[in-house]
Write a structure and sequence with these properties.
elongated
Length: 94
């Protein structure tokens, strides 16, 4: 099953240098301040809450995809083993 097209738009159009400033603010705990005192910025606190839920969903998707991929690999290995054994049996009969 293929992935659907991306629905979200661009978050910002900052340059790499400007993005570095955003990262510095994040690294210095800027997001923690909003999370620790949500009443000071209730709208941002709500967005942070939703971002955390989205992060949890993405982590679950990664876990699920990893399990599914491992299952497919295991199935392929088992199929190869069955074919190898069948060929081995055919070779012995000749």
């Amino acid at each position: 099953m293929a992935l659907a097209n991306k629905k979200s738009g661009t978050i910002h159009n900052k340059t790499e240098r400007e993005s570095a400033k955003l990262k510095t603010t994040y690294d210095e705990g800027g997001i923690d301040f909003i999370a620790d005192v949500p009443e000071d910025s209730p709208n941002l606190a709500a967005v942070i809450y939703q971002l955390k839920l989205m992060q949890d969903d993405i982590d679950e998707l990664r876990r699920f995809c990893g399990v599914e991929e491992k299952g497919r690999i295991d199935d392929a290995i088992n199929s190869v083993d069955k074919v190898s054994k069948a060929l081995e049996e055919l070779t012995k009969k000749k």
